Every structure is written in C-alpha cells, then in structure tokens.
Amino acid sequence: MIISVPKTVRRLYFMTMLVALSCLFYYALNWIGAWISPVDHYEIPEGSAVRAFQDSPHPEEELNAGQRLRLYYWYGE
After folding, report:
1. Are 51 and 45 within 8 A, CB to CB?
2. Which DSSP state fits 43?
3. How far is it, in rounded angstroms, from Cα 75 to Cα 77?
4. Is residue 15 within 8 Å of 21, Cβ to Cβ?
5. For a surface tag, which of 18, 20, 65, 67 has the fewest beta carbons within 10 Å of its beta carbon?
6. What is the tens place of the pLDDT at every residue in 44-53?
7. Is the pTM above the cut of 0.90?
8. All residues at 6 or more sequence positions from 63 whose CB lies less than 8 Å from its CB, including other chains
C-alpha cells in the first residue's frame, strides 16, 4: 500500500479548514441568534417599578378547548 504524502496533507488541510469554518459558522449564527432574540420583559422590577400584571381568578363558566384555542390564536400568545 502506497501512501501519498501530498495527498494526505491536502486531506488534513481540508479537514482542518472544514472544522474551523464549521466552528466559525456555528459561533457566528449563535451570536446573531443572541443579538436577534427579544429582551426578557418578565424580569423582577427594579427601583420603584411595579409589575402591572395580576392573575385574575377563573370565570365561573369555563371555556372549552375550542374557545381557548381561538383566544390563543386571536391574542397571539
């Protein structure tokens, strides 16, 4: 079996560049994803700020699954 040194060096160079560019692409997409992601609005208020949302008790007549799904799509939450 004959092993060609230039061919082996080219393969090692290709594999090294593939791994390096893959890592660079991964970290670039990770950075862009962190930059695009929205700010967490549900943190603990600071200073004299108060949280304006309060859970209301469930209404006496419960909504069925279809009505809840319709409200879910209507409000977009």
Report:
1. yes
2. S
3. 6
4. no
5. 65
6. 767 777 766 6
7. no
8. 71
